[in-house]
Amino acid sequence: MTGGGAVADVANGVGAAASGYSSEITFTVVMSCLMAASGGLIFGYDISITGGLTQMQSFLEKFFPDIWAKMNNAQQDAYCIFDSQVLTTFVSSLYLAGVFACLIAGHVTRKVGRRNSMLIGASLFFVGAILNCAAVNIAMLVIGRVLLGFAVGFTNQSAPVYLAEIAPTRWRGAFTSIFHFFLNVGMFVADLVNYRANTIPVWGWRLSLGVAVVPAAVILVGASFIPDTPNSLVLRGRLDDARASLRRIRGAGADVDAEMKDIVRAAEEDRRHQAGAFRRIVRREYRPYLVMAVAIPTFFELTGMIVVTLFTPLLFYTVGFSSQKAILGSIITDVVSLASIAVAALTVDRYGRRTLFMVGGGVLLVCLTGMAWTYGARLGSDGGKAMPRGYAVAVVALVCLYDAGFGISWGPLKWIIPSEIFPLEVRSAGQSMSEAISLTLTFVQTQSFLQMLCSFKFGAFAYNAAWVVVMTVFVFFFLPETKGVPIESLGAVWAQHWYWKRFVKPVAVAPAPATPHHKQADHGPA
């Protein structure tokens, strides 16, 4: 089997073990998930704020007057207006800092817990936002961006895992996808702020950068009142606190014994290994997890997400929109993204992860191919042609359709898959590795995309389209379905996969005791 049928087999084995799990969605779990998902706000806000700033008059006149001069030069190659190494350093410094933060955050999160790791990230983001808002030169901007990068590294590493560990099994995909939804809420708010700030001469850019303290403050306040995950508490030897946290999350009347036993068993497996988590994850028995830790974030970055999302205002400006209309176009695509992520949250636990990957892959391929043709045929290979209005509108439509396809597939699933597939003993390391790879590739792309657009022209979109084909085929053959399986029982899925079973040891599942609460079995939708 290619993986799609694995979950059906597993349901018969581990479903019984999960039958004691509560599927009740309590007020505590909802509030905890909302607070943890707010970690996506700071990342999303920063992505869109940066995209808007890079073509905002007040910002460019202050820090990049040469780019502003090129924007007003009618003879300038449209592909190369924003090709500036200093500008790309400003954009990409956050992601390089995030890489180092992720590698540190894995160890820190294991020692202090998921919640405290999020608080560290929010604190760093708060300070970085203040420094950026008060910047008087490029050096201050870059230092502020580095602090924001460390913040993103901590929150991106801890928040998705927090969500996966506290969510009810039946709705784990939906709850974890909230992180990506909040990321896009942050992008939407940032574009609204940019739209207003773009009309303010001289200091409008300070408004864009200064508002970043708001999502940081939301996390600082909110995360202080939510419990840490039972999984994290058990790892740190705090069993009584873990049981209390589990009861608080699942509800006072819930029977948490079965779930608690699974968490303790996973923690005992962790203690049986003396080697560090990073050394452990490269062992043969962890091969599928290592491959996915590398493949999922790598493919995510190669979808063209950076091309279409981070630089959306620049793409719209390139095809002839004014600066203000380019930001308005970004707002429209943000709305499309939010709607598509809501659809993904409602369907990911019903139809499964693999189905959304397949549908999204087809949509992304069509859109990237369409953009390559439109840019090539109507803007030309030298960027000297004027884009006809009808084709410029078609670019906006393709970007919106791309965002819809991305929003139902790779957008939320990039956070869902790595947060749920790793065994507890390597979960922090696996998530750290996955996010470090993602931020490294984001750094490389933000460093190179503007130059790539200038050099490759419309071929930049064809390049990503080819990778979409590769990643869709990979998912079809090598990623098993994980919907409806308890997070600490997912080893059985890999042990029954047609390829990965040669690496993963079969998981023995004890028969479920005959108790009345079997009627509330939490197997997920059929």
UniProtKB/TrEMBL annotation:
PROSITE patterns: MFS, SUGAR_TRANSPORT_1, SUGAR_TRANSPORT_2. The chain crosses the membrane at residues 86-106, 118-140, 146-164, 171-190, 202-226, 289-315, 327-348, 355-376, 391-413, 458-479. The keyword Membrane applies. One of its GO terms (cellular component) is membrane. InterPro entries: MFS_dom, MFS_STP/MST-like_plant, MFS_sugar_transport-like, MFS_trans_sf, STP/PLT_plant, Sugar/inositol_transpt, Sugar_transporter_CS. GO terms for molecular function: monosaccharide transmembrane transporter activity; symporter activity. Residues 32-483 form the Major facilitator superfamily (MFS) profile domain. It is a multi-pass membrane protein. Its main location: membrane. The keyword Transport applies. It holds the Pfam family Sugar_tr. Belongs to the major facilitator superfamily. Sugar transporter (TC 2.A.1.1) family. This is Major facilitator superfamily (MFS) profile domain-containing protein. It comes from Leersia perrieri.
